């Protein structure tokens, strides 16, 4: 996994070869390797004697007394979760790892047998995803006060770890998810709605855990600005959003009054939340988050900065424009064309990097 490559690189170069294109594709591969899940885990998780250290993407470190844990349990979901879990087990050399349960997309395998794997659909959740989430909840019953729970979250986790509230069906959630996707809703907006229809999203997994044991959530960010409550819909993170926000999004995309998309049960649920008849998702300051450490170990910024360094080492003047770009691909293409077209002609090669 450390030697990630573009699968069609040779074909691209055969048809369109130039030195600049070859260097550009090399740079993309550098960016891919920089955010390889196994590589990021090895940079972020260290076990030395009886000290377990977790280091975030900014270099901040959290230390744990490894000797104080009787057992370690692993759960998670996402497209990169199998690689993350496998690397974590390798770093700990299987020490104290009792059991694991993760959900990943179809076709992804894991060599280490310490984790039970459920394969499910993405981006529209399916019944296998619900089954995998129920397995995860069941595993939590085995974790004791002196154990450590490690959660792995990466892109796709919101869809791969579904568990609708009891009054809702999976079909209702699938229907709404598909319509929000086709309506152009942002990932932030999608996840605000998801949080308020779920038994585990929006900090509700933390409610289930309820301070019974320490938790470390290791996160690969797939959202702009690394909003930790948005990534995977924040199952172990306080939720600053409300039922009122969820309703506004459905109104914005003209779905609120469409009973084929927003069923009566969904509408009644959100309306009860807006009026205060039912409790909202757990908010910042709630004591249920006391013993939970949410740690981002990788993001788009890491890929971009490694690409920039690579290009500069190869004599290319490079400008990093940041990792906060959003919008439709066509609009971004127009922006890039204008950027390059307006750029003064210079003798030295020049590159723009952004994410």
Task: Explain what the structure shows.
With 355 residues, this protein is α/β, with parallel strands linked by helices. It is 40% helix and 17% strand. The protein has 13 helices and eleven strands. It has helices at residues 9-16, 19-34, 37-44, 81-92, 127-140, 157-160, 170-183, 187-195, 204-209, 243-252, 264-275, 300-313, 329-342; strands at residues 45-48, 51-55, 61-65, 72-77, 97-105, 115-120, 148-153, 215-220, 292-298, 317-320, 350-353. The strands form three sheets. Strands 6-5-4-7-8-9 form a six-stranded parallel sheet, with helices on both faces. Helix 13 (329-342) links the parallel strand 10 (317-320) and strand 11 (350-353). Helix 2 crosses helix 12 (300-313) and helix 10 (243-252) packs across helix 11 (264-275). The radius of gyration is 22 Å and the shape is globular. The protein starts with 8 loop residues before the first helix and ends with a strand.
């Amino acid at each position: 996994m450390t030697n990630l490559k573009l699968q069609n690189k040779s074909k691209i170069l055969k048809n369109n070869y130039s030195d600049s294109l070859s260097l550009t594709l090399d740079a993309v591969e550098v960016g891919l390797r920089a955010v390889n899940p196994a590589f990021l885990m090895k940079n972020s998780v260290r076990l030395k004697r009886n000290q377990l250290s977790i280091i975030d993407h900014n270099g901040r470190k959290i230390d744990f007394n490894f000797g104080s844990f009787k057992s370690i349990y692993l759960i998670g979901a996402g497209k990169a979760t199998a690689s993350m879990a496998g690397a974590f087990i390798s770093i700990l050399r299987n020490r104290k790892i009792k059991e694991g349960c993760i959900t990943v997309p179809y076709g992804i395998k894991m060599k280490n047998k310490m984790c039970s794997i459920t394969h499910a659909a993405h981006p529209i959740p399916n019944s296998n995803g619900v089954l995998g989430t129920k397995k995860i909840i069941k595993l939590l019953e085995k974790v004791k006060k002196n154990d450590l729970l490690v959660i792995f979250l990466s892109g796709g986790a919101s869809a791969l770890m579904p568990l609708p509230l009891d009054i809702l069906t999976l079909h209702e959630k699938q229907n709404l998810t598909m319509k929000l996707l086709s309506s152009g809703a942002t990932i932030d907006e999608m996840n605000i709605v998801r949080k308020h229809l779920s038994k585990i999203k929006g900090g509700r997994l933390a409610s289930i855990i309820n301070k019974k044991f320490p938790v470390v959530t290791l996160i690969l960010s797939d959202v702009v600005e690394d909003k930790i409550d948005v990534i995977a819909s924040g199952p172990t993170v306080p939720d600053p959003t409300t039922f009122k926000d969820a309703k506004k999004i459905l109104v914005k995309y003209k779905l609120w009054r469409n009973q084929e998309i927003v069923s009566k049960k969904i509408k009644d649920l959100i309306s009860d939340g807006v009026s205060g008849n039912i409790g909202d998702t757990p908010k910042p300051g709630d004591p249920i988050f006391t013993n939970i450490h949410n740690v981002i170990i990788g993001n788009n910024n890491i890929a971009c900065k490694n690409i920039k360094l690579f290009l500069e080492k190869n004599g290319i003047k490079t400008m990093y424009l940041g990792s906060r770009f959003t919008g439709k691909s066509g609009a971004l293409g127009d922006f890039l064309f204008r950027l390059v077209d307006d750029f003064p002609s210079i003798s030295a090669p020049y590159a723009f990097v952004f994410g």
